[in-house]
């Protein structure tokens, strides 16, 4: 076993409470100042593009037990039936490497019946089989058998397992790759592109407020869309809900932007939070340290602080798991750990179904998950 390249167990200290408060105040003031400067010029809102907004939802595999079985299809049906049509807005759906042909066929059938446009990134078993492991920062798979690994906090152990499996997660779940595909499409056809998680749904009132926010700040490259989770989709029909930045928001990109999501970050490891952090949007993600095994920034982010927070928010429909849509710190922690366990459990199932027959890396890194496999599909 080679020694790890860095002291990967050394945590970075979080800023003090006073430092955090001062930083929040600085960000708020900075954003107000920049809102006064029309850096993109007067022509921005007059692009001549066919649509003012594009809503592009990404539909992927369900990850049990974090997601209820069939929740992607159930929520798609809900959106197609209940979300209004919005003039000047183009809706598209991106099918992102769905493994089960039958599940994908049902989704396609619903979209075609509703007359919706969709794109597809296919899952190819042979491409998945060729993916490896990212062990450079750990010195080899033996690190995961070492006392250093066993002594690490459980949260850090899981992060290291996720990073070691990141080539497989990036291929299968492809979250930032799909987001960038959606961005590329949306920028060609509309002034604003909102890349949405598949379970996001707008009411007419919230969408109207979103449009007004986009028109009020044509000089801003990004519009941040607050979000609220609901545990029961019937709440969609009740009083307007209070959307906030407690949860990671959705993001709208103006067509003149060129930034993308960093595809080095796999699903479950700051895949969206990394962008929010570079944008300097106030939120809990600003205090999440970068682990030593994660990549350095390639270049300074040119658009930091340049965003507007929308007056309209979006509803995140039920994930199909009881009690996990609350906004308490306890529930967020349960979601976080449940998601990470679901990711590694899904990769273990994929290795069983599509991986190579013998793989010492897999047998060590995913030992707990491989040994507990059952016959259910991922």
Number of helices: 13
- Compressed to H and E, one letter per element, the order equals HEHEHEHHHHHEEHEEEHEEHHH
Give the proportion of residues in helices: 25-40%
Distance between the termini: 32 Å
Looking at this protein, list some descriptive labels.
seven-stranded mixed beta sheet; globular; 10 strands; 378 residues; three-stranded mixed beta sheet; alpha/beta; 38% helix; single chain
Overview of this structure, please?
The protein is of the alpha/beta class and 378 residues long. It has one domain (1-371). The protein has 13 helices and 10 strands. The protein has helices at 17-35, 71-82, 101-113, 125-129, 147-151, 154-164, 166-172, 175-189, 204-216, 273-279, 329-354, 360-365, 367-371; strands at residues 51-59, 89-96, 117-121, 190-197, 200-201, 222-225, 227-229, 250-254, 307-309, 314-316. The strands form 2 sheets. It has a 7-stranded mixed β-sheet with strand order 3-2-1-4-8-6-9, sandwiched between helices. Strands 5-10-7 form a 3-stranded mixed β-sheet, with no helix packed on it. Helix 2 links the parallel strand 1 (51-59) and strand 2. Helix 6 (154-164) packs parallel to helix 11 (329-354). The longest helix is centred in the C-terminal third of the chain and has 26 residues, at 329-354. The protein is globular, with a radius of gyration of 21 Å. The two termini are 32 Å apart.
């Amino acid at each position: 076993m080679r020694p790890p390249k860095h002291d990967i167990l050394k945590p970075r200290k979080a800023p003090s409470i006073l430092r955090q408060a001062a930083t929040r105040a600085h960000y708020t003031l900075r954003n107000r100042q920049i809102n006064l400067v029309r850096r993109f010029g007067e022509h921005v809102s007059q692009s001549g593009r066919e649509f003012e907004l594009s809503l592009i939802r990404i539909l992927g595999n369900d990850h049990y037990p974090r997601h209820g079985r069939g929740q992607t299809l159930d929520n798609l049906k809900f959106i197609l039936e209940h979300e209004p049509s919005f003039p000047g807005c183009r809706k598209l759906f991106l099918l992102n490497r769905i493994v089960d042909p039958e599940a994908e066929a049902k989704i396609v059938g619903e979209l075609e019946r509703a007359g919706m446009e969709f794109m597809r990134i296919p899952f190819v078993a042979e491409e998945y089989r060729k993916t490896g492991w990212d062990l450079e920062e750990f010195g080899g798979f033996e690190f995961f058998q070492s006392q250093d690994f066993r002594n690490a906090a459980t949260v850090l152990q899981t992060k290291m397992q996720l990073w070691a499996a990141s080539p497989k997660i990036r291929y299968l779940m492809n979250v930032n790759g799909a987001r960038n595909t959606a961005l590329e499409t949306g920028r060609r056809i509309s002034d604003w592109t909102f890349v949405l998680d598949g379970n996001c749904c707008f009411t007419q009132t919230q969408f109207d407020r979103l449009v007004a926010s986009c028109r009020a700040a044509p000089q801003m490259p990004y519009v941040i869309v607050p979000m609220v989770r609901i545990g029961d989709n019937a709440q969609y029909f009740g009083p307007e809900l209070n959307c906030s930045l407690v949860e990671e928001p959705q993001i709208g990109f103006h067509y003149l932007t060129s930034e993308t999501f960093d595809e080095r970050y796999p699903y479950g490891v700051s895949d969206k939070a990394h962008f929010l952090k570079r944008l300097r949007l106030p939120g809990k993600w600003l205090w999440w340290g970068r682990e030593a095994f994660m990549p350095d920034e390639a270049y300074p982010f040119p658009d930091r602080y340049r965003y507007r927070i929308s007056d309209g928010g979006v509803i995140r429909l039920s994930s199909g798991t009881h009690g996990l849509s609350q906004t308490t710190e306890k529930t967020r922690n349960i979601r976080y750990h449940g998601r990470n366990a679901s990711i590694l459990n899904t990769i273990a199932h994929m290795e069983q179904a599509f991986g190579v027959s013998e793989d010492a890396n897999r047998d060590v890194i995913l030992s707990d998950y491989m040994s507990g496999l059952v016959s259910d599909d991922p």
